[in-house]
């Protein structure tokens, strides 16, 4: 029995005690690893939530920028259309004025030709040359009333 006690004591001092310490250290490492894993999982979840929030915010901002750009483009399109319309109106008005001036010029030329033809016809019919200054003024005044 003494042998058993000595073997037990040697076994206890050299095998059991170091193995117990080794097992306690191992348990602590495992617990620490589990705690670290939980902490990392929580950190990951928080980071993921922040990422999702940032992504959502970025999408909102992108949509707002897109909408602002669209409004600006619509506004510019309207302004350009209005400017083009005003320019077209100016061109039409300018063309009308030019046509009116040309019409007046043509009418004046036609009146002068009518006077000249009337005088020629009168000369041929009367076989004499009338006083042109008198007839020109009188005829022009009469034809101006036409």
Automatic annotation (TrEMBL):
InterPro entries: ATP_synth_b/b'su_bac/chlpt, ATP_synth_F0_bsu_bac, ATP_synthase_B_chain. It is found in: Cell membrane; Endomembrane system. Residues 34-120 form a coiled coil. Keywords: ATP synthesis, Cell membrane, CF(0), Coiled coil, Hydrogen ion transport, Ion transport, Membrane, Transmembrane, Transmembrane helix, Transport. It is a single-pass membrane protein. It comes from the Bacteria. The keyword Coiled coil applies. GO terms for cellular component: endomembrane system; plasma membrane; proton-transporting ATP synthase complex. GO terms for molecular function: proton-transporting ATP synthase activity, rotational mechanism; proton-transporting ATPase activity, rotational mechanism. The keyword Transmembrane helix applies. Its main location: membrane. Belongs to the ATPase B chain family. F-type ATPases have 2 components, F(1) - the catalytic core - and F(0) - the membrane proton channel. F(1) has five subunits: alpha(3), beta(3), gamma(1), delta(1), epsilon(1). F(0) has three main subunits: a(1), b(2) and c(10-14). The alpha and beta chains form an alternating ring which encloses part of the gamma chain. F(1) is attached to F(0) by a central stalk formed by the gamma and epsilon chains, while a peripheral stalk is formed by the delta and b chains. Component of the F(0) channel, it forms part of the peripheral stalk, linking F(1) to F(0). HAMAP family: ATP_synth_b_bprime. This is ATP synthase subunit b. It comes from Candidatus Nomurabacteria bacterium RIFCSPLOWO2_01_FULL_46_18.
């Amino acid at each position: 029995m003494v042998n058993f006690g000595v073997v037990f004591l040697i076994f206890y001092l050299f095998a059991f005690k170091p193995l117990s310490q080794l097992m306690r250290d191992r348990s602590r490492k495992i617990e620490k690893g589990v705690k670290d894993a939980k902490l990392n999982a929580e950190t990951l979840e928080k980071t993921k939530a922040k990422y999702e929030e940032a992504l959502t915010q970025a999408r909102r901002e992108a949509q707002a920028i897109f909408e602002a750009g669209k409004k600006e483009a619509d506004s510019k399109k309207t302004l350009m259309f209005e400017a083009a319309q005003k320019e077209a109106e100016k061109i039409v008005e300018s063309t009308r004025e030019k046509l009116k001036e040309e019409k007046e010029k043509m009418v004046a030329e036609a009146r002068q030709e009518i006077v000249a033809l009337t005088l020629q016809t009168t000369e041929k019919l009367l076989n004499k040359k009338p006083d042109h200054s008198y007839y020109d003024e009188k005829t022009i005044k009469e034809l101006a009333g036409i």
